[in-house]
Write a structure and sequence with these properties.
Shape: globular
Radius of gyration: 17 Å
Bound molecules: NADP nicotinamide-adenine-dinucleotide phosphate
Structural class: alpha/beta
Strand content: 5-15%
Number of strands: 7
Helix content: 40-55%
CATH topology: Rossmann fold
Number of domains: 1
Distance between the termini: 35 Å
Length: 245
């Protein structure tokens, strides 16, 4: 089990990201919390015990060019970086007969391209140090292309594959790359949706941090999704398209 002294959470103002910041700070990890809404980040910082515990940075992950410089600043401010968690994500509502490139593009920009913009400098830094943990918050949604929100499923499938490739690249340097696949979690993202097996944000954050510390490959949160998704992944396409599972 890895013991982190320092961590950065990208997409930290609300939901699972904010709760991971809270839980890590409560364990004594010094955390950099990054996302667009500074007032939410400052409230989180105050709730966690101030700047000694949590440093905050306003950043839009779509400003890809800012990521390397901000990454270096965070490393300097924290005095190193043991773990980087990319959690930023959006899932705008998409009607079943809606074909909207604007929404699709933004989903890919935030959920996938933003992740790459951060994992590149973080991967280079950790490869050079021969240590560290990179974590991506993907989703069970990436395991199958469902009809409801094609771009969201695509973004998470691509993120999962990207993380697998990074893991295969970095394992020889002692760097861990962890893919977290939560099922539905009760946050702003899922407000008003009727979803199966939905869990509280505290449980999701706890599960994600445990997987990050374990450092091994991919994991579902909660673990009950593992056999469920194993089954769903094996449903033949000719049947799957006639269902809404
Ligand atoms: N909730 C679920 O059921 C569920 C299930 C599986 C996976 N996930 C994944 O878990 C992650 C967290 O989701 P959540 O449920 O906690 O939703 P949430 O409460 O809406 O949190 C999303 C976070 O992403 C940040 N973010 C969004 N766009 C951003 C941008 N352009 N630049 C920087 N940060 C940005 C938001 O911060 P700002 O708005 O302040 O920028 C916020 O902190 C997402 O990747 C989501 O896909 C969620």
């Amino acid at each position: 089990m890895a013991a982190f002294r320092t961590a950065a959470v990208i997409g930290a103002s609300t939901g699972i990201g904010a709760e991971m910041v809270r839980q890590l700070a409560a364990e004594g990890v010094r955390v950099a919390a990054v996302s667009r809404r500074l007032p939410e980040l400052e409230a989180l910082q105050a709730a966690c015990g101030g700047p000694e515990k949590v440093l905050v940075y306003a950043h839009d992950v779509k400003n890809y060019d800012e990521a390397p410089g901000l990454f270096d600043r965070i490393v300097a401010d924290l005095g190193g970086l043991d773990c980087l968690i990319y959690n930023a994500g959006i899932m705008p509502r998409v009607e079943e007969s809606e074909y909207n490139f604007g929404k699709d593009r933004e989903i890919i920009e935030v959920n996938l391209l933003g992740a790459m913009a951060w994992f590149n400098p973080a991967g280079a830094f950790m490869e050079a140090r021969r240590a560290g943990t990179l974590v991506g918050i993907s989703s069970v949604a990436g395991d199958r292309g469902r009809r409801g929100n094609p771009a969201y499923h695509t973004s998470k499938a691509a993120l999962t594959t990207y993380l697998e490739a990074l893991r295969n690249r970095l394992f020889r340097y002692g760097v861990h790359v962890v893919t977290v696949k939560p099922g539905p979690v009760s946050t702003a993202m899922t407000e008003g949706l009727k979803l199966p097996l939905i869990i509280p944000v505290e449980e999701a954050a706890r599960g994600a941090i445990a997987l990050a510390k374990g450092g091994t490959g991919e994991g579902y949160v909660p673990i009950a999704w593992k056999p469920i998704m194993l089954t769903i992944r094996h449903v033949p396409s000719v049947i799957f398209r006639r269902t809404n599972i």
